[in-house]
């Protein structure tokens, strides 16, 4: 699998640099047996640890919106992917009270965004072990290079919290192997004061209220990247219903209800329409979390249940729903491939608009292409965002979508939709790289598409039309 190749390559490159870096409290660490410090992503080099795979997270959390305090335990069921005498988890802020491995307290240290854990005795590659971290404090979101923030974000007053972690905010609320190369199943249980609702990914297994507190237990059965986890808290208006065999759960801040309801009513129709284009909806639950905030400025495709900073419009609903296939089910192995998420979700908007009386994708392509060479649209090639500040820039979205329209015009509708469906099917619950997408497109269409991708994904500045 691609991610394994990626991990292996980066492990080899970084191992030399990391031996013996555990803190003073840790046992001596033989060089080469500690996990890698970061999986080696060029844009977020510290994110994750290539030495372990987390199969499952069980998070048991308590949040107090007024005090803005989060306390809990994270239990990670992990497998060593190399011989290990220790490993690093990502955790930003918060206090760690205890770490155990298979029930035994172990030494740990904090260093920047890393929680460095020493294994009492080394384990060999392939060994399963369970890590439990007791922690708590006031979570603080991260400020990203583009000025936006991500992570656990308390909303003004005691409204609750908007919880979205792309690209690396998951570590602001739970210790994790925080790079998307590692995907895991999740149980997320959150206790909040009565009157609040905590909404997470997947299916709501149980909910009960006693002694002025409500506890919500959520379960996500499909593999999920840490950045797609949420546990957003608010005084929501909740609706639950079935769309065929799919349970839908929507939670809406009452202040956004008037604007949100008509759009959210379209969610089943959007899922059905996207299924006709992309293949079966990949998950066993759906829904939405709609917050009421004027500062966050974006929505995130949190798995099964996107979180919106305010009532979405149709384009945004279509966009975040398309991400369930492109981003959530098929996940990037490195952040520079972000156009595989954003370009595809944007192209879904183009197709929705065209199917509902808007401009045809060909015309949108032409309109965008008419923009002057100085426009932000041409500020970097979407196949190669140079830095974090540009990850979510216009080219990742719009020029990414233009690339897909160019591809569609080059290969024809039948091949194009075959490529989209095969992409979603072949990489379901896994990962995909730009190189793999290019190869699939060439295989399905039988065409040499190298010049097209070189022009649209990799050339700097405004591409010269072929
Ligand atoms: N993936 C989100 C979208 O649907 C954008 C996330 C932006 N994240 C951030 N920290 N600004 O387009
Ligand atoms: Zn998006």
TrEMBL record:
One of its GO terms (biological process) is proteolysis. Pfam families: Peptidase_M1 (PF01433), Peptidase_M1_N (PF17900). One of its GO terms (molecular function) is metallopeptidase activity. Residues 1-24 form the signal peptide. Keywords: Hydrolase, Metal-binding, Metalloprotease, Protease, Signal, Zinc. Residues 305-456 form the Peptidase M1 membrane alanine aminopeptidase domain. The keyword Hydrolase applies. It comes from the Bacteria. Its EC number is 3.4.11.2. It is an enzyme of class 3 (hydrolase). It catalyses: Release of an N-terminal amino acid, Xaa-|-Yaa- from a peptide, amide or arylamide. Xaa is preferably Ala, but may be most amino acids including Pro (slow action). When a terminal hydrophobic residue is followed by a prolyl residue, the two may be released as an intact Xaa-Pro dipeptide. The keyword Disulfide bond does not apply. CDD domains: M1_APN_like. Its cofactor is Zn(2+). Belongs to the peptidase M1 family. This is Aminopeptidase N.
